[in-house]
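Worked example 3. Consider a protein that binds nicotinamide-adenine-dinucleotide.
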Amino acid sequence: MSGRVKVGVFGAARGMTMIKQLANSQDGVLVAVCDKYKPLLDKCRALAEEKGLKLELFEDFEDFIQCDMDAVVLANYANEHVPFAIRLLESGRHVMSEVLTCATMAEGLRLAEAVERTGKIYCYAENYCYFNTTTEMRKRYMKGDFGELLHAEGEYIHDCSSIWPDITYGERNHWRNQCYSSFYCTHSIGPILFSTGLRPKRVIGIENPNTYMRQYGMNGGGHAMEIIELENGATLKSIHFSLKREPFSVNYEMYCEKGVMETDRWDFQKLHTYIEGEELCKGEHLEFKPEFDVAKELVEAAGHGGSDFFTVYYFIRQILGDEEAKKNCIDVYQALDMCTPGILAFKSICNGNVPFDVPDFRDKTVREQYRNDNFCTFKEIAGDQWVSPDRLNRPEIPDSAYQAMYRQWQENLEKAKKENSDNNANVAF
Ligand SMILES: NC(=O)c1ccc[n+]([C@@H]2O[C@H](COP(=O)([O-])OP(=O)(O)OC[C@H]3O[C@@H](n4cnc5c(N)ncnc54)[C@H](O)[C@@H]3O)[C@@H](O)[C@H]2O)c1
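Given these inputs, the predicted complex is written out as structure tokens:
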């Protein structure tokens, strides 16, 4: 298409990152925002005034979808992306979805079919694939500098206890309180799959029962691990969520035939590489901060180490027909490869840690067995296939825990108002 792409954003908490970027974009124009929480719409109104933008604001998705827009960024609840993505694709819009791709295997299948049926662009906003380090790892792997992958590790450890009131609002049924331990797996798995182009073949899940997050209202396990066999036989260990560590940990390691690339454990913008030379077990070690290829000032203004910039940028450029951008976008099949191991890992956890095959949804012959697979911990989605996120089946978390979270959230909002600061903790997971 020609001209600027008209973009709407659904969900304005984490979505505010995209809203701000779109308000300054040359390729896209922000035309609409939808969020049922009015204070967020007020913030958008103020931003539109400041930037001189004509922006439509909606509380209801049914009104939002009627609006004149070419594309939509989904930054609504992490377990509700698929039904909205399908509605939007079928209405002729391109879609960029925040993490996670889908909540169940059946949803994953329906999403792939909707993208195929409509021919619209679907792009997955797994921003951790676009750090300076993970971008460099992808570039170097694709160039063949390190040879074939043998083993990889991906880690996303984030103790969210201090911001839990601000990101769950005291709601018992908030997805963060009801998700399964292996749900939020794409920050740790995604960059490895994106760097190598490999697919997951089989997965085993292991979790640690919730240790300290339960007092704040979280039902699921504390952290989870996926042990994955990739299609070339390489092994991948993915670990994510709540353990005590500051600053939070984002870490990737790729052991290959000729050497290793790994991010620094305490400075996540630094990369270490080792490549073996002529002599066995001797080679070159390097330690450096890779530079981004695009304008530094744009990237630095974005969150998550600059990675937030690239998801929106490549999405819009792909819509405009930029083939380079298309190569840098994560399509629906790769998005499913990043997400479905987490769903199946929880099946594994519920079944004594047995392995499960990870289907390749590109292959139509493997799809049918997942058509009615609604296994998950979200009651409205799972129906009679519901399983509790609490594998220890402890007594229900008392209402008082959620009431305390709500009160703390309100106090934090009040404090932020007085200090004229932004309380929104949406840089969280
Ligand atoms: N990639 C990252 O680094 C990153 C960081 C934070 C959040 N996220 C993702 O962003 C998404 C949103 O998370 P969040 O932190 O903003 O918290 P959230 O899920 O609590 O917020 C979602 C927002 O969408 C709005 N919303 C949801 N359903 C709606 C509906 N039907 N109608 C109108 N408004 C609706 C809510 O009012 C809320 O403001 C999730 O998918 C999360 O996984 C990603």
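Take a moment to read the result before moving on. Residues 82 and 107 are 6 Å apart (CA to CA). The radius of gyration is 21 Å.
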